[in-house]
Amino acid sequence: MNDDTQPLLALTLGDPAGIGPEIILKALTHADLYQRCRPLVIGDQQILQRAAGWLGLSINLVSVVEPGAARYTAGTLTLLDLVNAAPAACPAGQLSAVAGKAAVEYVFRACDLAMAGHVDAVVTAPLNKAAMNMAGFHYAGHTELLAERTGAGTVSMLLVGPTLRVVHVSTHVALEEAIRRITPERVDAVIELAYQSCRVLGIAAPRIAIAGLNPHAGEGGLFGDQEQRAIQPAIEAARNRGRDVSDPQPPDTVFLRAVRGAYDIVVAMYHDQGHIPMKLLAFDSGVNVSVGLPIIRTSVDHGTAFDIAGTGKASEESMLAAIDVALQMVRARNHMG
Fold first, then answer.
1. Tens digits of per-residue pLDDT, 203-249?
2. What are the φ and ψ backbone dihedral angles of 114, each rounded to 5 degrees?
3. Measured between alpha carbons, how far is residue 208 from residues 105, 192, 219, 256, 301 in Å?
4. pTM
5. 106, 110, 111, 117 alpha-carbon torsion, rounded to 10°
6. Among 137, 151, 245, 146, which Cα is nearest to 198's?
7. Which domains, ranges and CATH numbers included, belong to the chain?
8. Alpha-carbon separation of residue 119 from 17, 64, 124, 313 (angstroms)
């Protein structure tokens, strides 16, 4: 049993046709979770009951209207039921506008609760970008959706694993567009996000590595000049603010150096540059964090996995890790005042 002093987390169900319902149910079978937080699921009761059947679980489900109107105890699932995803309209493993709309509505509700101070953090199960767009929500992902909903300025994606942290200058755009987005202003802003991210994760003096864009970080201009023209000026600006920032590092070695302890975080220039090492090292335990938002939001670092939805095979490890990172950020934020 826990009490009202424990952080209150909003867990969004994700796409009802994906593995989100299953990994949330599995995560909530870990009784020790309730000793660290109060988990509030935002989703649909019928979808959860369907997933419980797939998993062979018997759930004691309590539906609430307000987050604080319940006692959060092991063996009880506390749900804010949006009643928006009839199972027949959201077949497991299939794209549908109904499921895409429901997934977005869960995130909107959780975001609004966090903005109002009714929950301490938001932890999201995966939504499906195609389903979301089918429903008329034209976002590249959670980060972009939440940036608009909260009115945030510069936001980015932070990946956290057991041995590596990565923040991105760009994420869900074509590679050609990613290269265009490497400007001194954008790189400088993301370096600052990297610094602030480490601080809210409890690292007092972050050591920040900068991955170059080009092979060998441009090799002095032989393989491209973005390092000299756009990245180095941002590094100098950050150093002038007292940040501990490396020169542009060869992308093929910088992540290894970070894993071995030389740096606390790596600034990657585009999506795959940062995601490939993270997925290789921490596919099941990686956590996705939206940084630059006025709220704390963490997520699993995997997709809806339609190919195994409904089979009970999905692992809850990344969901548990996302909850732990959210709690770490809540504690750091409270400590910082």
1. 999 999 999 999 998 888 889 999 999 999 999 999 999 999 999 99
2. -70, -40
3. 36, 10, 21, 14, 22
4. 0.87
5. 170
6. 245
7. 1-152+293-337 (3.40.718.10), 154-291 (3.40.718.10)
8. 26, 14, 13, 30
